[in-house]
Amino acid sequence: MRLAAASGALLKCLPGLVRSRGFSEDSCREFSGLPGEDVQAKSHPQSKEASLYVHWPYCLRRCSYCNFNKYISRSVNHVDMTTCLQRETETLLRLSQVSSITSVFFGGGTPSLAPPSTIASVLETIAKQAGLRVDAEVTLEVNPTPMGVAKLADFLHAGVNRFSVGVQSLRDEDLRVLGRDHHSQHALRTVEEARRLCPGRVSVDVIFGRPGQGLACWEAELEELLLVCDDHVSLYQLTLERGTHLFRQVQAGQLSLPGDEVMARMYESARRILGERGFLQYEVSNFARNGAVSSHNLTYWRAGEFLGVGPGAHGRFVPREKGGVFREARTQTLEPDVWMAEVKRWGHGTRRRVELSHVELLEEVLVMTLSLRIVSGCLHAHWNLFSPGLGLQQVVGESAEVQEFLERGLLILDHRGLRCSWEGLAVLDSLLPPLLLELQAHAQAQEVQGECTTGFE
């Protein structure tokens, strides 16, 4: 499960991707050796490497805060679901003509409800159709129930080599309010077993800003979690999503969330505690030590190509088989039964696809890399892979409004690239529109002059 306080500008530019909002902080330490700093890798616009996301839409129950694409079904046709996941994987890999998959993420929903044989079948299809790198990161989200922990070894044998455990809270009362179907002891047991099977490759998700939660309680809980967790922690601020049970409870005055100032203090306190335990922050929600960053996450933030398989999945890739040269934003059909019918008929369940112009791709690169909460931000070398004819200095150098951001220390432009300060990340929504307008103006001017490089993927 991925929760975040969504940035409005990111929602407009990049629907369906993971989004988060930062808080102000007086310093930020660089994560050395961060995968993805080698800008010649799969984020290159003409690369034929990609990541692949697989969406398993089913859950046993709906959490009170969740508005994700999930379905409560007591009778899942696993044979049909497996066959359709394989077929759509095969179709999209053939369409994209990617030669290597560098990471796979099984999300949901509750993918740990899937039979391990389904996971194995999808991975076998990837390996047969395109090739799965020997060092590929293969992550499975795990619901920490007795059923989930009992299947971990089978998932490992199926090809999974990284687990993301949805702990969410170590307070049983809070888990009840969130509508979770596990207890804190279940979560601790799952983390322990996952670490035994995949030492150094286990992430835990935890939610802060829960109803009635105070700063001291949050700090104590995080300290307790850090005694048992592995080398990766994802922190998510609880947000109210319209239409959820929690939203209705808060609207009715039955529950209340901490205020913005308390939320900010919780976040900043968590950053401090994690830093003291050796965790370095590489994105607003993600912390790692011993180099245990998620390469799949970085594909998104580096604007790399990725394929989305399964009901409601999103993807960004070039349809090379059809002679395409521009990247497309694709969304698969939401409802599982309808999606399966479409896959059986056409080989895929793509409901919507939008070809991204060169300017739109540059907008995505700028938005995603500036939203990457590490010191590097948008590197000149990385930007130049997508836009050799229009440098970052040109994009930001002539705007009075952007110059004001630079003078106020909200944006930093130097020999390395363009990035936000922690103060700038807190107001990212107000920084992005002027930057995007400048990008559009310069790109259009180059097109008029016939100097704009075209044909980039």
Record the SSE blueprint.
Blueprint (H helix, E strand, L loop, with lengths): L7 H6 L35 E8 L1 E2 L11 E2 L5 H19 L3 E9 L7 H14 L2 E11 L3 H5 L1 H7 L3 E7 L3 H6 L6 H14 L4 E7 L6 H12 L5 E6 L7 H7 L8 H17 L3 E4 L2 E3 L6 H7 L4 E4 L4 E4 L10 E5 L3 H11 L3 E6 L2 H13 L7 E2 H7 L5 H6 L2 H8 L3 E3 L3 E4 L1 H5 L1 H21 L9
Parallel strand pairs: 1-4, 1-11, 2-3, 4-5, 5-6, 6-7, 7-8
Antiparallel strand pairs: 8-10, 9-10, 12-13, 13-14, 15-17, 16-17
Helix pairs in contact: 2-3, 3-5, 8-10, 13-18
Notes on the protein architecture:
The chain is of the alpha/beta class and 457 residues long. The chain has helices spanning 8-13, 78-96, 116-129, 146-150, 152-158, 172-177, 184-197, 215-226, 245-251, 260-276, 295-301, 336-346, 358-370, 380-386, 392-397, 400-407, 422-426, 428-448; strands at residues 49-56, 58-59, 71-72, 100-108, 132-142, 162-168, 202-208, 232-237, 280-283, 286-288, 306-309, 314-317, 328-332, 350-355, 378-379, 411-413, 417-420. The strands form four sheets. A nine-stranded mixed beta sheet has the order 9-10-8-7-6-5-4-1-11, sandwiched between helices. The chain has a three-stranded antiparallel beta sheet with strand order 12-13-14, with no helix packed on it. It has a three-stranded antiparallel beta sheet with strand order 15-17-16. Helix 2 (78-96) packs parallel to helix 3 (116-129). It is globular. The model is unreliable at 1-42 and 451-457 (pLDDT under 50).
